[in-house]
Write a structure and sequence with these properties.
Keywords: Membrane, Transmembrane, Transmembrane helix
Distance between the termini: 20 Å
Strand content: under 5%
Order of helices and strands: HHHHHHHHHHHHHHHHHHHH
Protein name: Transporter
Number of helices: 20
Radius of gyration: 23 Å
Organism: Paenibacillus polysaccharolyticus
Shape: globular
Length: about 475
């Protein structure tokens, strides 16, 4: 194994990683720590205060460039979802599926699977708004308690769909970039892990809910869902705008056309082998076309102005969600190519980046193996999710996975495992303040929802980690 010379930059970077994890465990914001880390690294790299300070801004620019496509696709998808909700098209799109929900068991799995599919295209938070209001009354009618509907939406949407993120590809891009891997390799490696995690967690939750499921209620007055004011999370866009209706015939046309367009996108991805940025661009472009078409149909002469308003709303959402991520990503990008681009290659000759150097160095002094690597990635991913944002720490996950790559040769599996753990814990299944959208629409306490999700998620992470050990 080649001998890597570690310099103060390596140790400072590692020290700040440990400090960031410690701050996350205490559920504190890590922005200031990340900025301090960037400044310290800049000072060591340039040996000037000016270089240190300017490095902060330049690292933010670098991180924003890397994340820009992800921010844009999420913002556009949210903008489109707003117009679908306010025109009533979303209700027409989902209503036909309710005819298949006749029992509480069917309601649990039906809501979950529909939430998973919609979340793959719209992301979970918009998906909750898209389908929750329509499917919750049906679920309660057939005997599924509101907490059961909330659990299903959480585990299938914020868990399975978001941890894989195979359509929008925001999560795998972040982790793959930080690990220095192709996005495709992380996505392929995550497939068995996402499947195992999903099966174990959803089956555990279903088993725990079985005693609360009741026989279907067929009287209208018996199954009216509880109505509570929906609490707003910081990252949720305003839903209080007036509803703009379309003629029923036009709503039905759009309700058929929109899923067909996205289905066509999926077909084109396979036929043309579109992946990563190309696949994201196809989805984003389709969403923009749908947004414009529906806005013009709904608002007629004011269609242009309203399209702009929906885009503004979407971008407010996108930057509000990713605002806390940019400083964190800026720090962790320094562990790879950004350090050379921003600070004129301050590392010793033969270096392959701070993270890779640390991985090689650790391999010589720590008895790391596949088992240790898998357990470490699961714990690290779960810890980074404690801040309630599944995305804020997955750059760290990718960086740490790269450290183990030299000894396990399974960086994609380790990266995917850390991504799954981070998203499941922080993306909206265990942290109460990340559960507000689903809890609000179902009229349940987010703290109770987090408590009920705890055992299924822990069981899922345990089994998934064991599976990952055998895959390494």
């Amino acid at each position: 194994m080649m001998n890597i010379q570690l310099v103060p930059l390596h140790y400072v970077y590692l020290a700040f990683i440990v400090l960031i994890i410690a701050v996350m465990v205490r559920r504190k914001d890590t922005t200031i720590i990340c900025v301090a880390g960037i400044m310290t690294i800049g000072l060591l790299a340039t040996e000037t205060l000016n270089g240190s300070v300017t490095g902060v801004f330049n690292s933010f620019i670098y991180a924003t460039k890397e994340l820009l496509s992800t921010i844009f696709i999420i913002s556009i998808i949210v903008a489109m979802s707003r117009v679908l909700i306010r025109t009533g098209i979303n209700e027409i799109m989902v209503t036909p599926l309710t005819r298949f929900i006749r029992t509480p068991q069917a309601a649990y799995w039906g809501i979950g699977l529909i939430m998973m599919v919609v979340s793959l295209f719209f992301w979970p938070s918009p998906a909750v708004a898209l389908i929750g209001a329509v499917l919750l009354p049906v679920a309660v009618r057939v005997g599924l308690p509101p907490i059961g509907a909330a659990i299903a939406m959480n585990l299938f949407g914020h868990g399975i769909a978001l941890s894989g993120d195979y359509i929008i590809q925001g999560a795998p891009k972040l982790t793959a970039d930080a690990a220095g891997l192709p996005v495709t390799s992380v996505m392929v490696a995550s497939v068995p892990l996402v499947i195992i995690m999903g099966i174990v967690s959803t089956l555990t939750a279903f088993w725990m809910l079985r005693k609360e499921m009741k026989p279907p209620k067929w009287k209208e007055q018996e199954f009216a869902p509880r109505q509570q004011p929906a609490s707003k999370s910081q990252s949720e866009p305003n839903e209080s705008a007036p509803v703009t209706t379309l003629p029923l015939r036009l709503r039905k046309i759009f309700a058929i056309l929109i899923p067909l367009l996205f289905a066509l996108d999926v077909v084109l991805m396979f036929v043309l082998n579109l992946q990563g940025g190309d696949a994201t661009a196809l989805i984003g472009g389709t969403a923009v076309v749908i947004l414009i078409a529906v806005s013009i149909a709904a608002h007629r002469h004011n269609g242009s102005e309203e399209t702009t308003n929906y885009l503004i709303e979407g971008f407010q959402f996108g930057f509000k969600v990713f605002g806390p991520v940019i400083p964190i990503a800026a720090f962790f990008y320094l562990g790879d190519a950004a350090i050379t681009e921003l600070f004129m290659n301050p590392l010793p000759e033969g270096s392959h980046g701070i993270v890779n150097d640390l991985g090689v160095a650790f391999a010589g002094i720590v008895p790391m193996n596949g088992t240790v690597g898998a357990i470490t990635m699961t714990v690290t991913g779960a810890v980074t999710g404690l801040d309630g944002s599944g995305f804020s720490g997955i750059s760290l996950v990718g960086s740490i996975a790269a450290m183990f790559a030299g000894t396990t040769n399974s960086a994609p599996v380790l990266t995917a495992l850390g991504q799954v753990a981070a998203i499941w814990v922080g993306g909206g299944t265990l942290i109460p303040w990340a559960l507000i959208p689903a809890a609000a629409i179902c009229g349940v306490s987010p703290f109770e929802l987090a408590r009920r999700n705890l055992k299924p998620v822990i069981n899922g992470l345990t089994v998934t980690t064991i599976v990952a050990i055998f895959l390494i």
